[in-house]
Design goal:
Length: 128
């Protein structure tokens, strides 16, 4: 029976157990560090970097810049003005853009879920 148990254990991907009756003790496993918490902002951070940072900068501060020959004064996402906007208002700007100010619409590039991720990242990762 021990041979069958060893074969079954090997077939299941586990090492066979030691059937020795030795009195030797096995040292306790070393303490492990706590698992790294899930980075719930990672998706929004990546989307922001790919779609927003070119104008709003990685830190969200925006400012004057020239894009495709146009000089723009890009909103500072860390400003009190933008912090007071509702999530729906920010989402609307992302979906529809602000053509008069040079911001493109992202309704054809990002899903609603992705836009929510970007807004969450702006709120908790940039505006802190």
């Amino acid at each position: 029976m021990i041979v069958i148990g060893a074969i079954a254990s090997a077939a299941c991907g586990t090492a066979p157990t030691n059937t020795s009756t030795s009195n030797a003790t096995t040292p306790a496993p070393a303490a492990t560090t706590a698992a790294t918490p899930l980075d719930e902002l990672a998706g929004g951070r990546a989307l922001y970097s790919q779609n927003c940072a070119a104008c709003h900068k990685e830190d969200g501060t925006g400012g004057k810049m020239t894009i495709e020959g146009k000089t723009l004064n890009v909103d500072d996402l860390t400003s009190d003005k933008i912090k007071k906007f509702s999530d729906e208002k920010i989402s609307g700007y992302i979906i529809n853009g602000v053509p008069d100010e040079g911001m493109p619409a992202f309704k054809d590039d990002l899903t609603e879920a992705q836009i929510r991720e970007v807004v969450l990242y702006v709120r908790r990762g940039i505006q802190k």
